[in-house]
Automatic annotation (TrEMBL):
One of its GO terms (molecular function) is kinase activity. This is histidine kinase. It comes from Mesobacillus maritimus. Its EC number is 2.7.13.3. It catalyses: ATP + protein L-histidine = ADP + protein N-phospho-L-histidine. It is a multi-pass membrane protein. Keywords: ATP-binding, Cell membrane, Kinase, Membrane, Nucleotide-binding, Phosphoprotein, Transferase, Transmembrane, Transmembrane helix, Two-component regulatory system. The chain holds residues 191 to 437 of 437 of the full protein.
Amino acid sequence: LRDAVVKSDKIEVISHLAASVSHEVRNPLTVTRGFLQMLKDPSIPEEKRQFYLDTAIDELDRAEVILKDYLSFSKPQHHQVSMLNVKTEIEKSLELLSPYANHNSVKVTKNLTEGLYINGDAAKFQQCLLNILKNGIEAMPNGGTLTVQVHQSKTSKSIIINIEDTGIGMSASQLAKLGEPYFSTKKDKGTGLGMLVAFKILKEMNGFVDSSSEVNKGTRFTLIFPMINLPYKNEILSNTTVKGINY
Ligand code: ADP
Ligand code: MG
């Protein structure tokens, strides 16, 4: 029964996401289509033509941002739960974001304990990390430090990931709205969907998030996941390779 409940919960999450993606992307596509249609008219003045083209390009860029917040790195065949090496996954997302961090003069500091594993879908975990890390970078338009740490809890039951920035921070009311669909303070640069998606993925992975923030000081997200204990040598996995570790 428990499995069935978890499964229907996942299907609900996925179908809700699919519905939101198509809804969100439809607007910019409709606008773009409208402007392209008008561009077919050979008599429109050059000034208007430029405006239509610029708007169409902006709207397509916006559609791309929406898709990135939702599913930039998901490929259908990757949609499966496996044992994830937390350090490796974090390093992958930091690598992907390093041009963006450089562009914003953001320095990245990391302290990642080796050999810690959690259960999850690699593509979705990447998406979750990217959405949170990207917000951290965007909170520091004039530079700052993004710190990422991973360690296990004292009881060895959980894995704790800390993501901290020295950015603009959030007021208590903003913090309370985090993860609400379409809550964004970034005007047309934001979708207000990144945290919603990140929180949904965390829930699917049986993770928790704790957030704290101070205006003009920065923000810290603490992600907590159930820890997987690797089976010991000579038990079950004597000839198996788990993500590069030989038993
Ligand atoms: P978007 O980034 O498109 O605005 P998100 O769902 O990713 O949407 O984030 C929602 C809002 O939460 C942001 O617009 C911002 O106001 C706030 N926020 C999220 N992360 C941070 C952070 N690290 N520092 C400051 N504000 C943040
Ligand atoms: Mg965002």
